[in-house]
Structure formats: C-alpha cells, structure tokens
Specification:
- This protein is an all-alpha fold and about 250 residues long.
- It has one domain.
- Helices cover about 85% and strands about 0% of the residues.
- The protein contains ten helices and no strands.
Length: about 250
Amino acid sequence: MLKEIIISIQSYFKAHQFITKHRLWKWILIPGIIYTILFIISMYFFGKTANNFIEWISLKTGLKAWLDRTHSGFLGFLFTLAALIMWLIQMMLYFSLFKYIWLIVGSPVFSYLSEKTDSILLGREYPFSFKQLLKDIRRGIRIALRNAFWQTVYMIAIMLLALIPLAGCATPLLALLVECYYYGFSMLDYSCERKKMSAPVSIAFIENHKGLAIGTGLFFYIVHLLPVIGWVLAPAYAIIAATLSMHEVKRDEE
C-alpha cells in the first residue's frame, strides 16, 4: 500500500507537467475559481455551525455546568481538547459533504478531464457521445452519493469516539484517512468506468488498491494548505493525477 501512496503523490507532480505540456489550463482555472469561491463561503458558515453545535451539546448534557462546579483545571483541559478534536472532525465532515456536492456538480468537467488525460496518454481520441457523457455523469453521481453515505457513517462514529478523553486524540488522523480514501475513490472511479468496469467491480478494484485512493486524497488535502492557489488547483489536479496513477499501476500489473 505504501508504494501505491507514493505513486499517487508523485502523480500530482506529473499532473502539473502534463497540464503545462498539453495546455489544459482553461479546464483547470475556470472550475477551480468557482470551487474556491464556494469553498470560502462554505467553510465560513461550517465553522460557525461547528462552534454552535459544540456549545449546544455542552449545555444540553450539563457538561459545562458540571465542569464549572468541579473547578478542575485538568478536567477543563480535557474538555477543551475534546472540543477542539470534535470541531476538527466536524469540519472534516462538513468539508466532505461540500466536496461531494462539488463532485456531483462538477462531474461533467471531471469526466472530460479524465477522458482527455487518457486520450493523450494512449494516443487515441474518444469520439464524443452525449449519451456516454450522461452515463458517465450518472455513474459519478451514484459513486459520490455512495461514498458520501459511508463516509458520513464512519465520521459520525469517529465523532462519538472523540468524546472519550485521550482515546479521542487519535480520531483526527483516523478521520483524515477515511476522508482521503473516499475522495480518492471518487477520482479513481472515472478511470474504472472508462475501462468498462461495473460499479461493483470498480469498488472491488479500488478496495484492492487502497494506497492509490488514500494517496490521491491525501495530497488533495496537502494542496489545500496553499491558500487560494491551492484551492483553485486541487480539484482538477486530483482527477488528472488519479488518471495518471491508474495508468502506472495498470502498467506495472501487465
């Protein structure tokens, strides 16, 4: 799995060279700018909602009042740490839901970019078919909804685990791995669909190559650490990198 994670991360650097060489910038910048605007607006409101939820649950459970009565600095520290962890996990959950909405809305562009990358790599043109495009979009939406459901189930379980002092310290990392896996999964499925894999076969294939999915999602998050420019580039770079990594893995298996 480590080898596949390395392959997927290296594919992001190859994606930059690929985009520059084949002049794909218009397919990167326009969707990326729209994504960035929606991302900034969404994360602002997500942050406020996360704070309000933590305050609400601490009041409803009586935890805040109990802590005030104990006058324990150590318990107060544990509560603050648990609240911070829960806030981080909530933000990951909110971001994942935003991301899946973007995957659904942007599925025509992602499908085109994946196909265009594949076309250049193989040196052949895929004839345009509106029927096939609609099929690709429906497939992308179904996979995004499936992944959103399962990721939400896991994230809620992780959020509950975060309430346990000390044991909850590991939950942000666990949540990040889950988030990376399911995002990378959605990016890789475009290539699987083009190879005529059915949804169950695609699911089985990606589960056997978890490293590709985790690595694709992980570097997507790393790119987000670059304010604005990283947000603009991350979505399209992820789909092209996923397509390049699929080619490399398939070549190694042959």
